[in-house]
Amino acid sequence: MTEHDQLDPLEDENSEVASDSSRPQKLLEVASHCLKTGLYTDVTFIVGERKFPAHRLVMDSISDYFKSLFKIDENDIGEVSLSSVSPEDFGIILNFAYTGELNINEDNVQNILIAADFFQVKFVKDKCIHFIESYLEVDNVCDVILFARTFLLSDLEEKTVKFLKENLDSVSRNKRFPALDPDLLIQLFQDDNLILWSNKVLLKSMARERLVLNAVLRYMSTRKELDDNYLEMLMCSVRLPELPLSVIEDCLLNFDCIRDNNVIQRVIKLREKAVRYLNKKARDNFQLTDLSINVSNVPENWFRARHLPNYIISTGRRRHAAGGEVGRCTGLPISSISDPNSEIHRIDIWVRQWDGHSVVGGLKLSYRNSGGYKECSRGDCHSLTEHYFVELEPEEFIIKVVVGSGYLIDRLGFETNLGRVCGPFGGIGGGKNTEKAPDGSFSYLFDINCDSVTAQGSDAIHNLILRWITFQ
Fold first, then answer.
1. Is residue 251 one of the residues assigned to a domain?
2. DSSP symbols for 145-202
3. Which domain-ending residue is among 275, 307, 339?
4. Which residue has the higher pLDDT, 40 or 325?
5. Are residues 323 and 462 in the same domain?
6. Lowest mean pLDDT among 51-65, 133-147, 360-374, 387-401
7. Which of 244, 276, 307 is at the close of a domain?
8. What is the percent of the chain where pLDDT is above 70?
9. At what angle are helices 182-190 and 205-222 packed, to 10 degrees?
10. Which positions ≥6 away from 420 have C-beta within 8 Å?
């Protein structure tokens, strides 16, 4: 074996690599001690009237900004002037470089964030943004948005706008809401991906547009100095064809000072033209490529549906009363609803007698969406004597269902996100099964699918399965 063939000690199978976990902390302690005593310092930062001795190696370790800065000092003068930060804020950045500790509070966090962004100190910047996010509330979010936009802090702006969208109704009622830039609101409300929440409930189609319209009207009523172009862009950012004219008129009743504004009335007339076009398209199966021919001056975004968050429609964990003892069950019952914008508005349950006890004889579900209401029914929904119903309020959803079943569906009970318990309706027979909404940001009962069978002279419900929708 020649000397070139000798094994690298690190590759020797009998070698060991040891690591001292206390070494990084010890290095920081020594560096901090050297800073306090002035030992080995090789650069001085001049900030305002103060001088801060430091070590290039330490400052280089927290940000590429300082590496580039030191390259500029090619003559090795050893002094660097900084004019974009206060001595107090630079002192906090310097202390972090030598201790790894960050002292922030509500009074200094914005200035520290500006400094961290300027010096490209990612850890400090991220911690400041997280700190600000933790105390965001309706009363301060508009000012934080203004701060983020002024200093081009896109990460912070993204988080504050997210808070705004989750609390738009409350924020739009706040006295600081009119301070927001109209361009920001136009961009926000025009977005096809606008996702809005109210009391942790996802708003869809008509509910979403009504909230946007009210926010726009509140803003316009306090920003009367805006020119007509801004007013028109704000009004057109609302997908007005999603809203019935009666809803628009109800919203305007709360804003007497602008209700008769010429721009608002002109945009409402454009809505009428758009609705006529959409109705004709639905009847005649027109393509959207005909838009430029058939509709003039109508905002193009009115003909695009806003998107929803990603969602999953899942079936319940079992089919109820699907054993086939009374009637054949060849598979899953037919699903009649697929539009994720649809929501259960009302459930009607008819109860009949079968074999000496009560069972569900008929079931009707009414769904609401931007197009109105749709009903689906199974079984006998007219002639039976016992009739029960559950009508859900806006932003109320079923999150738990109790099913009693044996050969047939004996009873149904429901619990909503508002804590309301309805039922159970029907008899006491059969086994009890409880299904809950799946885990997720927002989950609820989407649909009830079932079949009916003739038993002892009249219909009864069997082969029932629940379908849930979960938004991510």
1. yes
2. HHHHHHTT-HHHHHHHHHHHHHTHHHHHTSTTGGGS-HHHHHHHHH-TT--EEETTEE
3. 307
4. 40
5. yes
6. 360-374
7. 307
8. 93
9. 170
10. 396
Query: Do residue 341 and residue 253 come from a single domain?
Result: no
Q: List Cα–Cα distances, 430 to 12, 337, 433, 465, in angstroms.
A: 72, 28, 10, 16
Any domain includes 247: yes
Using an 8 Å Cβ cutoff, are 172 and 135 in contact? no
Q: Which ranges constitute the DSSP H helices of 223-298?
A: 228-236, 245-252, 262-284, 291-294
Domain ranges, residue 195: 181-307
Instruction: Give percent of the chain with pLDDT exceeding 90.
Output: 75
pTM for this one? 0.81
Mean pLDDT of 88-93: 96
* CATH assignment at residue 343: 2.100.10.30
d(CA 414, CA 421): 6
Domain count, the chain: 3
299 and 368 within one domain: no
Phi, psi dihedral angles at 373 (to 5 degrees) = -125, 150
Q: Select from 452, 465, 436 the least CA-distant residue to 359.
A: 452
Are residues 68 and 109 both part of a single domain?
yes
Q: Judging by DSSP bridges, how do beta strands 79-82 and 43-47 pair with one another?
A: parallel
